Each structure stands twice: as C-alpha cells, then as structure tokens.
Amino acid sequence: MEIQIRDLAKDYGTVPALHSVDLDVKSGELLALLGPSGSGKTTLLRSIAGLEQASRGKIFFGEEEASATPVRERGVGFVFQHYALFKHMTVAENIGFGLSVRPRAKRPPKAAIRERVLSLLDLVRLKGLEDRYPAQLSGGQRQRVALARALAVDPKVLLLDEPFGALDAKVRKELRKWLREIHEETHYTTVFVTHDQEEALELADRVVVLDKGRIEQVGTPDEVYDAPATPFVFAFIGDSSELPVTVDQGRVWLYDRAVPLGLDVVGHGPARLFVRPQHWEVGAPANGLAGVVRSVLRHGPGRRAEVELGAGVSVTVDVSDDHAVRTGDRIGLKPSRWRLFLADGQAVAPIPARRPAASGFRA
Amino acid sequence: MAMSDTDDWRAAAATAGATGEGFAARAVLIALALGFLALFLVLPLVAVFAEAFRNGVGAWWAAFQDPDGLAAIRLTLIVTAIAVPANLVFGIAAAWAITKFRFPGKSLLITLIDLPFSVSPVVSGLVWVLLFGAQGLLGPFLKANGLQIIFAVPGLVLATIFVTFPFVARELIPLMEEQGTADEEAAMTLGASGLTTFVRVTLPNIKWGLLYGVLLCNARAMGEFGAVSVVSGHVRGLTNTMPLHVEILYNEYEFVAAFAMASLLAALALVTLVLKTFLEWRYGGHLAGGRGH
Questions:
Q1: Starting from the edge strand earliest in sequence, which strands make up the sheet with A214-219, in order?
Q2: Is the distance from CB of B269 to CB of B223 less than 8 angstroms?
Q3: Is residue A347 scored above 80 in pLDDT?
Q4: Residue B143: is it exposed, middle or buried by C-beta count within 10 angstroms (0-12/13-18/19+)?
Q5: What is the pLDDT of residue A351?
Q6: Residue A336's pLDDT is what?
C-alpha cells in the first residue's frame, strides 16, 4: 500500500520538529529515513503511525486518509528500538497479542492464532522459541519477535524506529540482511528510521535524508551517495572534505590558487567544493594543489592521509599502495570527481560548463 | 559475592591493622546503631506486647469483648476498605497522567501529591472541619440537607484518604517513568483499546509496585491518628477508630485493654514490615528503584 504525505508539519510547543514535509512511499518499497538526531526522522515515522499528532498536513494510505484514523485503527505495524515486548507474556503470546485483542466478532479462533504465530516464528527464524519469555532471549531474537508481532496483524504499512540501534555491530549486520530477506518475501511497504548511513544505503530501496525537520534529498542509495543534492547531504553521507572556494570567471579559486578541476564553471562568488577521499589524484606538487602530508593512517583496506593545503585548509585523501606517501611529503592533488555548491543561500547544484550535467560529476 | 565480601573484610582488616582505629570505630558505630534501635524500636514494641499480655491471654482476649472496642475495629476496617481502594484508583490515575502524557501544570501536580506528607496531620484534619464543619464553608448547606460529614464516618474517610493518598502514586510514578510508554504504544498500534492496554499491558508491568504502595497505604490508613482525631468527635462506639480508642482506654487507666488494642496495631505493623521486606527481596527489580520509605 502506498503512503502519501502532504504538507506535514509538527511542532512541540514553539519548537518545530517538521516543516511542511511532502513524501511518497511506493507500494512494497523499503524506505529509509536517514538523518542526525533532531532531524525529525522519528517524528515523521511516529506521525505516520499516529503515535504523534501532526500539527498540520495529511497522510494517506492508498486512498484512505490515515491521519483521520486513530492509531489503533490505522493498521500499522510498529517496531520499537528497545523492542517493547510484553515482559510477562511468552513469545507466542506477544506475537498473538494483536489478534487476541480484536473484538470478539473479528477475533480468529485460538487455534488459528496459534497457527499464525507458529508460521510467523518460522518466518523470523525463531522456530521452537514460542514458550520462552522475552528475558530469556538475546537482543537480536527480541527484535525478531517484535517484528513478528507487528506482522501478525497483517499491517498496511510496516514502520521501524531505529530497529537495530540497541544491538551490537555484528548482530546489526546479520539482522540487516535478514530484514532485507523478510522484505523480499513479504513485500510490506516498509519505512525505517536510522541514523546509520551504512544501514540506510545497504538496506533501503530509497533513502530520505532529513535535516532540521526538512527533507534534503530523496533518492536511491546511489543517487544520494553519488549525487548529493545539498551540501548537507554531501557532508552527512560518506566521507568528504570541504574547501571554501571562490568562483570567478569560470575558474574556481582556493584563496589565490586555482583549483585544477579540468573544466570551467558558470557562476560567481563564494562557493563550497566537496571532494570524497577516494576522488583525489595524487601527483607531484607542481601538478595540482600543493600540500604537505600531516599524517597517514590505516583506513580499512587502504591508507588515508591528512593533507594540509595551507591557510588552515586540510583535506582527507585515500592513497593507494602504489604511492609511497609518508608524513612530511609534499604532494600535488587534483580532484577527479567533485561537486560545487554556490553559497548564495540556495544550496543549488553545481554547474560545470560545457557538460550536460546529469549528475554534476566529472566522470 | 563471597569473594568480594572476603576482599572487603580483608581490606577493612588491613585498614584496622594500619591505623588501629578502624575496628574500634566500626564497633562503636554498630553498637550505637543497635543500641538506638533497641531503645527506640524494640523496647517499645516489647513493652506493648508485655503490657497487653500482663494479665494473661484471657485478659487480652476479654479486651476485645467490649462492644466499643469491637466497634472501633469495625470502623477502622470500614474506613480502610474505602480509603485504600480510593487511593489505589487515584494513585494509578495520577501516575498514569503524569508519566504517559505531557500537560501544563504537571510539575504542580507532582508537588501537590506530596503535600499530605509535608503537612501536619492536625492541619489535614482541620481542613475538613473548615470545609464541612457546622461553622465551615459548606456547613449550612450540609445541615439544610441533613448530611453529616464531620464527626461521622464520611469525615474519617476523607481525612484518611487525604493523609494516605501519596503512597500509591509516589510508588508508581518513578516506576512508570522508568518503564516509559513504548509498551502501551506497541499495544495501541496492535489495535488494543485503552482498557485492554491497561489491563493486559500496564497493570502486569506495575503490579508489584502497586502492591507495595497499597501495603504502605493500608498500614498508614489503619494507624492514622492525628487527622482522624480532629474530625472524629470521639463518640464511643460510633466514630472512634482503633488508634483513637487506644488513647481513650489509656486515659481511663484501662491499660490492659489499651495495650491489647495497641498490640493489634503493632502486629499489623510487623506483618506490613515482613510483607514489605519480602516484596523488596523478591521483586526488588520491579519496584521503583528498590528503595523503601
């Protein structure tokens, strides 16, 4: 079932948490709401569930206006960061809760509930644990039970609030894969909140990046990583260095030095140039922006250098094993891919001239 | 556990050996604490029972054959049977409102709940006299309608409710605060009604804390003297509760009867203490911070 959100706003007293959000979630999609704390992502998710009352705006599940329906009739499955399992109930009782509280006329018989519970336990790979209590389960198992409980009522949409936030890194990765598999099997329209960009990029069909109660960008993981729409998205997703530059007569200047971008740009005035560590070409000092290597550290499979360009500006550069870069070396840097945001208030896309800018990147 | 105890002991012994003062100081402090406890708690308790049984079990038993004494016991049970359930409902409602909702005046409400603890019991009784007494604010109205509150059972119930209303709420607020609202929210998203959510989710989460609060509330409701004394009017056989009856008997030099009645109250206190200790020991994790009152 698709979700349409129109002009949704929410404030707590005088503090705005969401400013006029518009968003469409496609049917069967797995969508991530990604942002730093205070970005409004959880408020947005809880508003979709009906756990928060929006100050303005409407939410539709298909044709039906969900925002006019109270939470208990809205038909959402909600999974909480800290599981919120009922401690005094067994796993089976937890999962069957949603069915067992239905009005008598709509309540399935006990045997049918039991059957549904067992098939869900099978789905979440917890066969045989139906008589355990939550306290007897690991964190990862508890969250699986929580998901099974949410799915038991056959929700119109599935909402997960930082579902793996309370788990350690290894379990988190496992569950990520597991959630993806469950999604492929069930195809519930799913929205999940996370502050972990790796989780969002790996798991989601599309990612919504939020900051300060506004949507900064909506796109596939590739789109938000490769073509960030705003400086915030560029800085927030993946590693990057930002250079305070000036655009003048088609050239980009870092103070008095021209940045070798390899092509001219239109526009004028101060701007922000973003480059990811892996998109610097390292060469001789005369060949590019000259800088001094301040440190070289191990970073995953490769090495990563901090290079000072002078005037208090330094950038992070991935160096390949072919280059014997050491602390104290003078090197020259040339960005192979980059993105430029003119700083005239509007964080607009870069405009590399002489190029039909599909992504804004120089491939 | 045993290991760390031993370590503590060794550390303490080492300190004692090094300074020569540790052991002596410890012995003095423990002796002081035990002596104080014996003097102010154990001795009076023993005195109560010794006095009650001074003339044997028969005399003790005879004290309860007095119709006025029986009336006092019955009245205490009636007052408690109304006050405790009332505070149970109020305590849950207040704790629920305070911990699960945001509303203006919330911190004022929390402060007000503690008011009966900080106000002298005499004042707690007087407010009802000022409100419902013959010269009180609503006195003429009550008189015109033939209703009596002060110097009657309703006054005793009101005063007792007032004095004991913090117990349940104060036990539940920190507990429910700690548990948060996620369980209730989960139940709601699963389609449960408010009542179902309360009965099947909230109540099981708070039952031990609730029992603990009710226990303390009950002990205080039965034992309350000050506030009840002000509104009672001391009509024998009609408006005397057990504590009030004890005082009257004592003032009339009926020591055995007075202490026999007092021994019942003391026994109630002991039973409360045992149950309270049991709850703290068995379900300490489910009580608010495991702390006592």
A1: A76-79, A157-161, A189-194, A30-34, A206-211, A214-219
A2: yes
A3: no
A4: exposed
A5: 46
A6: 87
Q: How far apart are CA A189 and CA A159, in angstroms?
A: 9
**CA A359 to the chain's CA centroid:** 20
Q: Stretch B159-175: mean pLDDT, rounded?
A: 91
Q: Scanning the structure block, which residue is given the tokens 């979630």? A: A25
Query: In this complex, do B189 and A82 lie within 8 Å of one another by their Cβ atoms?
Result: no
Domain boundaries in chain B?
A: 1-52, 56-286
Considering only CB atoms, B191 lies closest to which of A72, A87, A88, namely A72
Instruction: List domains and CATH numbers for chain A.
Output: 3-226 (3.40.50.300), 239-342 (2.40.50.140)
CB contact under 8 A, A97 and B196: no
Alpha carbons A273 and A338: distance in angstroms, whole number? 7
CATH of domain B56-286: 1.10.3720.10
pLDDT digits over A31-83, tens only?
999 999 889 999 999 999 999 988 999 999 998 999 889 998 999 999 999 99
| Contact criterion met (CB < 8 Å) for B190 and A149 | yes
Q: Which of A45, A89, A97, A161 to substitute to test the interface with B, most B CBs within 10 Å?
A: A97
Check residue A357 and give its pLDDT: 41
pLDDT band at B3 (very low <50, low <70, confident <90, very high): very low
pLDDT at residue number A323: 72
CB contact under 8 A, B189 and A102: no
CB neighbour list of residue B202: distance below 8 Å, 6 or more residues apart: B96, B176, B183, B184
Q: Which residues of A touch B (CB under 8 A)?
A: 49-51, 71-74, 76-78, 80, 82, 84-88, 97-98, 101-102, 146, 149-150, 152-153
Q: What is the average pLDDT value for chain A, to the nearest integer?
A: 87
In the prediction, which pLDDT does A268 show? 80
Token code pair at residue A19: 């400013």
Buried b (16+ CB within 10 A) or exposed e, B222-258: bbbbebbbbbbbeeeeebbbbbbbbbbbeeeebebbb
B103: helix, strand or coil: coil
Token readout for B108 is: 């004022």
- Give the closest residue to A199 by CA, choosing from A158, A163, A232: A163
> If you average pLDDT over every residue of chain B, what do you get?
84
- Average the pLDDT over each of B4-8, B151-155, B235-239 and give the range with the smallest value: B4-8
Q: How far is CA A253 from CA A257, A277, B204, in A?
A: 5, 20, 67
Please judge whether B185 and A80 are an interchain contact, meaning their C-beta atoms are less than 8 angstroms apart: yes
- In this prediction, residue A216 has a pLDDT band, given cuts at 50, 70 and 90, of very high
DSSP three-state, residue A251 = strand
Across the interface, of B182, B192, B193, the residue whose CB is closest to A84 is B182
- Residues A124/A179, Cβ–Cβ less than 8 Å: no
Q: What was the pLDDT predicted at B269?
A: 85
Q: What count of other Cβ atoms lies within 10 Å of the Cβ of residue A58?
A: 14
CA–CA gap between residue B79 and residue B227 (Å, rounded): 13
Q: What is the pLDDT of residues B230-265, one digit of tens each?
A: 888 888 878 889 999 999 988 998 888 888 889 988
Could you tell me the two tokens for A264?
A: 């001219």
Any idea of the CA torsion for A182, A211, A213, A196, to the nearest 10 degrees? 30
At residue B145, the 3 state secondary structure works out as coil
Query: What does R_g of chain B's alpha carbons equal in angstroms?
Result: 24
